[in-house]
Design a protein that fits this description.
There is one protein chain. By secondary structure, the chain is mainly β. It is built from one helix and 20 strands. The protein has a single domain, classed as Glycosyl hydrolase domain, family 43 (Tachylectin-2, Chain A, 5 Propeller), CATH 2.115.10.20. The protein has one helix at residues 2-20, and strands at residues 25-26, 39-44, 49-53, 56-60, 66-71, 76-82, 85-91, 98-104, 109-114, 121-124, 127-131, 140-149, 155-176, 181-187, 193-197, 203-208, 215-217, 229-236, 250-259, 262-265. The strands form four sheets. The chain has a seven-stranded antiparallel sheet, with no helix packed on it. Strands 1, 17, 18, 19 and 20 form a five-stranded antiparallel sheet that branches.
Length: 268
Amino acid sequence: MKKIFTLLLICVAIISVAQEKIPAIITKPGALAALKGHIQGACCSEDAIYLSHVEGIFKLDWNGNVLKHTALPKHTGDICYWKGRIYDSLYNDVDGENNIIVLDDDINIVGSFKTPGSGCATVHDGFLYVGTGPRDSKPHRFNNITKFTLPDCRPVATMTLDYGVETRYAAQCLASDGKSIYAVFYATNGCDPCVILTPDLKVVKSVRFNGSTGFDFLPQSRNHGKNPRCFRVKHIGDWHVPTTKPNPVQVRIDFFEVVDGKFVNITE
């Protein structure tokens, strides 16, 4: 009887885990025909997923269908969503200026602010965090993140981080699970490092997570796990090749649960 009860518990556990899996989202061939370069960053709302690339931003539904595309001045970076607005970090290759472009939830431009550096963006507790350099391709283990007020984007403080591993360029993607801030960098070799930070930008730990082409945490209405859950964007095919036949570039979105600082794949 005890063995049967144990087997029943195991079956229930297996079923529970299976129910927690989330199907991958894959865009249709040709849907990203406006794509320039690789995906730079991602964010989401309860109703949509947003993907930025070098010269624009896509709006997708939660089935991966492209709803709209808006062209932006390059070089567009990471993006974040907050209270019906999308904040997009942008470095203008022509005049060298750094800006935060503000869009509404239908990706119409509604404002912009100059910033001291370019890179990535996330919102935590009503403040905007932006990666502000350095842009150096030489390996380094220090980087700056600047904290801004919202909605007026006034700089509050800049912190220089020593995250203990060598990387290239500035932070590539930032995200917040509501408690911690996550910053993904380009690795000098191997899997990209993800640095977990406190809200006052103290380094908690560095883990490995290939999220440099876009990731974000799910809104509360779509997070049915006991731990924070996020999605990650990866290319299917070679983004260096134009998105035309025979191999138009697609993206695949996988889902992860953060358990004790580690990203556990929960994609079906």
